[in-house]
Amino acid sequence: MLSSAIVDNLLSAPVLAFVVAVLVTLVKGDIRLPDGLYPILSTYLLLAIGLKGGKGLADADLGDVWQPLLASIVLGAITPIVAYVSLRRLGRLGVIDSAAIAAHYGSVSAVTFTVVLAFLEATGEPTEGFLAGLLAVLEIVGIVVALAIAQAHLAREGGESSWGEALSEVLRGRSIVLLIAGLAIGLAAGPERLEPVDPLFVGLFPGLLTLFLIEMGTIAAQRVRDVREAGWRLVALALAIPLVNGLLGAVAGSLAGLGVGGTTVLATLAASASYIAAPAAVRIALPTANPGLYITASLGVTFPFNIVVGIPIYYAMAKGLT
Amino acid sequence: MLSSAIVDNLLSAPVLAFVVAVLVTLVKGDIRLPDGLYPILSTYLLLAIGLKGGKGLADADLGDVWQPLLASIVLGAITPIVAYVSLRRLGRLGVIDSAAIAAHYGSVSAVTFTVVLAFLEATGEPTEGFLAGLLAVLEIVGIVVALAIAQAHLAREGGESSWGEALSEVLRGRSIVLLIAGLAIGLAAGPERLEPVDPLFVGLFPGLLTLFLIEMGTIAAQRVRDVREAGWRLVALALAIPLVNGLLGAVAGSLAGLGVGGTTVLATLAASASYIAAPAAVRIALPTANPGLYITASLGVTFPFNIVVGIPIYYAMAKGLT
Amino acid sequence: MLSSAIVDNLLSAPVLAFVVAVLVTLVKGDIRLPDGLYPILSTYLLLAIGLKGGKGLADADLGDVWQPLLASIVLGAITPIVAYVSLRRLGRLGVIDSAAIAAHYGSVSAVTFTVVLAFLEATGEPTEGFLAGLLAVLEIVGIVVALAIAQAHLAREGGESSWGEALSEVLRGRSIVLLIAGLAIGLAAGPERLEPVDPLFVGLFPGLLTLFLIEMGTIAAQRVRDVREAGWRLVALALAIPLVNGLLGAVAGSLAGLGVGGTTVLATLAASASYIAAPAAVRIALPTANPGLYITASLGVTFPFNIVVGIPIYYAMAKGLT
Amino acid sequence: MTTTERQLVTIVAESVLRRRLLDDLRQLGATGYSISSTDGSGTGGRNTSDWEGPHIRIETIVRDDVAEAILAHLVEHYFSNYAVVAWASTVRVARPAKFD
Amino acid sequence: MTTTERQLVTIVAESVLRRRLLDDLRQLGATGYSISSTDGSGTGGRNTSDWEGPHIRIETIVRDDVAEAILAHLVEHYFSNYAVVAWASTVRVARPAKFD
Amino acid sequence: MTTTERQLVTIVAESVLRRRLLDDLRQLGATGYSISSTDGSGTGGRNTSDWEGPHIRIETIVRDDVAEAILAHLVEHYFSNYAVVAWASTVRVARPAKFD
Ligand SMILES: Nc1ncnc2c1ncn2[C@@H]1O[C@H](COP(=O)(O)O)[C@@H](O)[C@H]1O
Ligand SMILES: Nc1ncnc2c1ncn2[C@@H]1O[C@H](COP(=O)(O)O)[C@@H](O)[C@H]1O
Ligand SMILES: Nc1ncnc2c1ncn2[C@@H]1O[C@H](COP(=O)(O)O)[C@@H](O)[C@H]1O
Ligand code: NA
Ligand code: NA
Ligand code: NA
After folding, report:
1. What ipTM goes with this model?
2. Which of A229, B164, C234, D88 is the right S-S partner for C230, CB 3.0 to 4.6 Å?
3. Which tens digit of pLDDT belongs to each residue from C66-112?
4. Distance, CA of A264 to CA of A254 (rounded, Å)
């Protein structure tokens, strides 16, 4: 049941592309996509997600949206704390590194979001249209909370931290801006008016996501060496934290009245770790934090785990809870 | 009636994307498309327009084409003169700057052309297939006439102007070449043989145009500061000239026997100002002209005006005249 | 009959785009695609071919595949020898240059492969799905054989050649890796699971191939000057070798039990000359070989010849033999 | 023709520093800059460009004292925590005023 | 090994000048060049790259006299009306003949 | 602030040499490098970038002896058969140790 879902997920084009790219890179094959394609694809994915979410919001009435929205904000506050505490206590990491990593787990991975959507699409599980709206919220809140933790500590230490700058970095950064721009356009135009652009933003979505995951595979594979260095404690936590946060997300989703599909998505978002917005913000706000730790955890361990086996697990959680 | 057409146009995906990109950029959000995507999209749009026009020419018989063609040449000669005279007299600008700006209004904006096509498509208004052929003609004639004006003047002054070079710059430039190449391929292959490539060049057209207009929005927004500097006279003319030239285009179109759709397109072309071919040519031929004036007028004022409110106006003119 | 097939092929969008691009470039028009698009398109084409082949292999049973596979290996061994001997004897070229050029004719051109597929698609001629698998095999074997010839000679001379490095260059190079990755993904996922990505990898294929051939046209046109310098002997052989190898390919294909479509493809592969994998390998293994000769022959003469008139000829051969 | 000596300061840094570095340069007295992207590797071991995207490469022509100030500023604020490399060389320009 | 001094002239200019500048370099005696694209800003205020696309960055290794000639040529024909910045520096090359 | 002189070696070469050149640099003692792509033309006549793609442009800051070694190595192994151009110039760096 779960195992068959895992196989289905593994054999879907995007995940398969990711796995193949990882393997090819490990045997030193050159499968990197040409420079310049990566930013184009991520721009496309964020816009397409935003448009989809905007269309969904255009149809949804506020009554259905406010509870999931609230749930997202709560999750955005809790998940980084879960991460922070476990990294401090069980991971035996310092405040700065713990907060830095926590910011990644508090935030979300848009690509993981797209993979779960593709998975549910293939499974035939319907999803609420407005979920991409929650993505935008979750992406921000978690980073803010985690940076606040570090901030509070640094203040006590009298250390300086440019976290205001870091925040504006996130809010004005391309990933948030593109997502929100897509939401705005989708909301204003509505489904009918967007039909002419569907061949690009809907029709090509799975294909371009697959292309993107090839690049993700090469990047993740390059982190493998670091995984060894990072030590078993961090690796273990990079597997455990998503499961805990995923469960919290599933609970929150079902409480917020989301269906199985929406609950799976919220669980996946809670479980996912950012590797674009968060690293950029953390690099500015906590320059002394070791990227080797937070990138390895989010990109080297959690991301592959989530898209290969995590998603089916969160799907099972959702079905169990709703 | 007109207002509803304006709203319809404003809520279409491409125009909406443009407006959103302008707003985001004004609040310092980073929504620029990745480098390298801009030239790819403009290449695509020019080829796609050319192919469409070529297919249209393949079907059309010369009898229908020669009158609109003649009308285009006449427009290409008159519109820059209209611009030049008003800029000299009302705008109180020097010969060089007036001629430089006039070259932009004599030439056309291929993107504005694509937006009007998308608008008419959405409105369900049929258009003659061969219109893209007129685009190529109009793009060149206007620049030549305007440069000739400056040339004549400079000759009198004994000043040197490398306008031969400027002309070859236009004729061999990518925008004209891609357009003509597309026309040639479309004409030679014809509609049936091009069906396999329709998913790319027809199906994705509205979506890629939308993507392109996001970039255009960021570029236009960066001109806003300049608009203030440019002074109200230039801004006023950058709004008035398109309306006058648009009316001339509408008249010419109806006289040439074009339908409402074709007349709207010809009016829009006449009203549109070039910001790719013309600036490059003017930069070479009239290096002392101030780019701050001609770019601000064409890209900062006229382009946004045309795609947001101009097109519906020209559509109304066309319906009134045909 | 043959002539009509040539016209049909010539008027297909991809070939037409190639011819137009050549002409435009010869009259110094700037129709080069923006930098960065070329590698993106070649990446796409290789992946798409691989996926197609993988799907085909997923359906085919080993019984149908082993004979064509054997035929490919044999062709991979014979075609470079045919090239080598004729270049030495008739072309009066030295060992190094002959081996260098032979490596190109032993290997294959993936683009020529895609053009023949498009041609057969348009002609309505069915093709075996697994042919892309043969492409991968043929691409490698021919290079290895030709380098071995040079290697043997250099060894006798006591000269040094880094052909191990050259080989790994080919095997780890992007073209082979992308092809094989596509095959693996297609094979593992199978046709149904790949349907979501078909709009990108199947629907856009002819269009993106057309775009790619515009760039190929500009590159080929730049070789024309070199063609003059290369001398009539080399040009003649660059036309004769493909015909001979094409005939060998057609014979091998029919003996291996391929249909008319598959035989045409195998003949085209045998006739085609590599201009990506081979030049890179040869540049490393035989640095003293003159690129002016092997690039001119493969890219300046054989490639245009094959896609414009060669393919219909090989099609005729295939129909005659099966 | 007469040329005057100025300093060309070249900075290669991880892209996340883009906005900051450009602001710093202005404040330290640079009148302009050219920026492009580059890849690379060094002693920092882990290459931030894997997830941040390519490094930025900044060139700025400045007066000697400004060059000094820029290098000092980089050492103080960035060298310890970020992937940054910088060097200065003497170049000759035709319009020194443009860079003062 | 013995190296010889040559001049490296670097030109950053708006892209519309591409063809012209390359022709000029040849005529002034440059035997080759490398060209890439760059962004930037300077005292010219308005940045032509917004609509022209990125600037070009040309590097050419030449004899001292050719370097002089290039800078003089740029000053005379381009500096006043175009966004162009150029500088020259002394470099050591292994095959001086290649650049003469 | 105190700066120390090092050599900046710049190499422009056809892209097929990428892996090799980077390996060579490491072995010859370079502690790091920056690499970007460039187009260009020279005396080699035929431009390999037409089919190989753009050239690579490598910059590496090294000790004087390493710079010597790199140039010598290029002359011996690449100059005769490949499209390669290289030059060295003296630059000032703030953290010399980083490049030793
Ligand atoms: N010796 C060097 N020469 C040129 N560029 C270097 C050198 N060392 C480092 N870099 C550049 O600076 C970046 C950061 O270096 P590092 O901080 O040593 O990891 C690298 O990715 C290179 O782009
Ligand atoms: N001080 C400088 N250092 C390096 N590059 C510069 C400098 N000033 C200007 N540039 C470059 O030259 C271009 C034109 O400068 P400007 O003519 O001052 O607007 C700018 O966009 C930059 O790319
Ligand atoms: N004088 C030069 N200055 C700068 N770069 C050069 C020069 N000559 C050649 N190059 C570069 O080196 C590459 C190979 O040159 P060549 O081997 O002379 O064909 C060219 O494509 C240019 O990118
Ligand atoms: Na999360
Ligand atoms: Na006009
Ligand atoms: Na072959």
Report:
1. 0.94
2. C234
3. 999 999 999 999 999 999 999 999 999 999 999 999 999 999 999 99
4. 9
CB C46 within 8 A of CB C114: no
% of chain A residues with pLDDT over 70: 98
Q: In 3D, which of B171, B200, B111, B62 has the Cα closest to residue C13?
A: B200
Q: Using the predicted structure, report yes or no on whether residue B169 has a pLDDT greater than 80.
A: no
Ligand 6 is an ion; residues with CB less than 5 A from it:
C 108, 272
pLDDT reading at B97 higher than 70: yes
Q: Determine, for residues B181 and C35 on separate chains, whether the beta-carbon distance falls below 8 Å.
A: no
The CA-atom distances, in angstroms, between A250 and each of A108, A236, A256 are: 15, 21, 10
Query: What b-and-e string marks burial along C261-280, b requiring 16 or more CB atoms within 10 Å of the CB?
Result: bbbbbbbbbbbbbbbbbbbb
Mean pLDDT of the residues in chain B: 92
Residues 6+ apart with CB under 8 A from B241: B82, B83, B86, B105, B302
pLDDT at E5 over 70: yes
Q: Is E52 on the interface with B (CB under 8 A)?
A: yes
Contact yes or no for A121/A291 (Cβ under 8 A)? no
Determine contact: C123 vs chain B, CB below 8 A: no
Residue A11's Cβ-side half-sphere holds a number of Cα atoms within 13 Å equal to 17
Neighbours of chain E (3+ CB pairs under 8 A): B, D, F
Q: Could you tell me the pLDDT band of residue D46, with boundaries at 50, 70 and 90?
A: low
Phi-psi region at E11: left, alpha or beta (left = phi > 0; alpha = psi -120 to 50): beta
User: H or E stretch including C1?
Assistant: none
Cβ atoms of E35 and E56 closer than 8 Å: yes
Return the C-alpha torsion angle F81, F84, F87, F93, nearest 10: -120
Q: How far apart, in whole angstroms, are the C-alpha atoms of residue C82 and residue F100?
A: 54
CA distance linking residue C107 with residue C125, whole number of Å: 25
pLDDT, mean of residues A231-248: 97
Asked if C321 and C251 count as a contact pair (C-beta separation under 8 A), the reply is yes
Q: What pLDDT is recorded for position B160?
A: 60
Q: Which amino acid is at A33?
A: L
* Ligand 3 pocket residue status of E42, Cβ below 6 Å: no
Q: Which residue of C has its CA nearest to B38?
A: C34
Closest ligand 3 atom to the C-alpha of E59? 4
Q: How many CB atoms lie within 10 A of CB F68?
A: 18
Burial label, D80 (beta-carbon count in 10 A; 0-12, 13-18, 19+): exposed
Residue A216: both structure tokens together: 């993700």
Classify residue E20 by burial, with Cβ atoms within 10 Å: 0-12, 13-18, 19+.
Answer: middle
Gap between the Cα atoms of A115 and A265, Å rounded: 10
Radius of gyration of chain A (CA): 18
pTM of the model: 0.94
Of F16, F46, F81, Cβ closest to residue C292? F46
Extract the tokens encoding C124.
């309505």
- Whole-number pLDDT of residue B158: 63
Q: Where are the alpha helices (DSSP H) in chain C?
A: 2-10, 13-26, 37-59, 62-89, 95-106, 110-123, 131-157, 163-172, 174-194, 198, 205-222, 224-230, 232-255, 260-271, 277-285, 291-295, 303-305, 311-321
Beta bridge partners of D93: D4, E87
Model pLDDT, residue F1: 75
Per the DSSP assignment, residues forming a β-bridge with F4 are F93
For residue B284, is pLDDT > 90? no
Write out chain A residues lying below 8 Å of C173, CB-based: 30
**What distance in Å separates the CA atoms of residue A37 and residue A39, rounded to the nearest whole number?**
6
What is the rounded distance in angstroms from the CA atom of residue F92 to the CA atom of residue C101?
48
Cβ pair E46:B291 closer than 8 A: yes
Report CA Rg, chain F.
14
Chain E residue with the nearest C-alpha to that of F73: E1
